[in-house]
Amino acid sequence: MRRKTAKRIPTLPDPRFNDVMVTKFVNNLMLEGKKSVALTIFYDAIDRVSEKTGEDGLEIFKKGLSNVTPGVEVRSRRVGGATFQIPQPIRDSRKLSLGMKWLIRFSRKRNEKTMAERLAAEIMAAAKEEGATFKKKEETHRMAEANKAFSHFRF
After folding, report:
1. 143 occurs within a structural domain
2. How far is 38 from 49, CA to CA, in rounded Å?
3. Which ranges of 109-152 does DSSP label H, i.e. alpha helix?
4. 2 in any annotated domain
5. Structure letter (DSSP) for residue 152
6. What is the pLDDT of residues 41-91, one digit of tens each?
7. Helix count (H) and strand count (E) of the chain?
8. 53-78 burial code (b ≥16 CB/10 A, e <16)
9. Where residue 31 sits, what CATH number does that domain have?
10. Which SS3 state, helix, strand or coil, does residue 73 take?
11. Would you say residue 37 lies in a domain?
12. What does the pLDDT look like over 105-131, one tens digit per residue?
């Protein structure tokens, strides 16, 4: 049996935008504990986005992130020897986390020269409802829609 639940440590806002969501994104972006490198990459990407679009880079980032956060996901469940993909709504913290992780993963797979360029391009694509990250969200929703018949197995 489980003991008591872990305490949630509050995330501090980032120095430039004073936003907690930016800190969470940078923490996901960070590799090998190099937070200052991750911050530099993120700020460069936001600067590139605002340069290319002529709008506020942080607003475009937030719009892009909200466009790629999924609403439902499918989870595997064994029922009577068969495995079913059961669609389930996602809680808000996991929605945001999945959206951030997908944005970072598909940014890393892009072909631009620096990570800041890749991230900026993926953020702009997400804000326009294009790109690999948005495609992943649509695919997840399509999968949930296709398996809607098994939703009565939800636990």
Report:
1. yes
2. 17
3. 115-127, 131-146
4. no
5. G
6. 999 999 999 999 999 999 999 999 999 999 998 888 888 888 888 888 999
7. 6, 2
8. beeebbebbbbbbebbbbebbbeeee
9. 1.10.455.10
10. strand
11. yes
12. 999 999 999 999 999 999 999 999 999
User: CB-based burial of residue 101 (10 Å sphere; 0-12 exposed, 13-18 middle, 19+ buried)?
Assistant: middle
| Cα–Cα distance for residue pair 70/140, rounded to 1 Å | 7
CA dist 26 to 5, 15, 112, 144, Å? 26, 12, 20, 29
CB neighbour burial string for 120-131, b if at least 16 within 10 angstroms, e if fewer: bbbbbbbbeeeb
Strand pairing report for 82-89 and 72-79: antiparallel
Q: Please report, to the nearest 10 degrees, the dihedral formed by the alpha carbons of residues 116, 118, 123, 129 taken in order.
A: 170
Residue 60 within any structural domain of the chain? yes
Indicate the residue type of 58. Answer: L
Q: Which amino acid is at 88?
A: Q
| CB of 26 closer than 8 Å to CB of 39 | yes
Range of the domain at 82: 20-153
Q: Which residue has the tokens 């719009």?
A: 63
| Whole-prediction pTM | 0.90
Domains identified in the chain, total number: 1
**How many whole angstroms separate alpha carbon 58 and alpha carbon 140?**
26
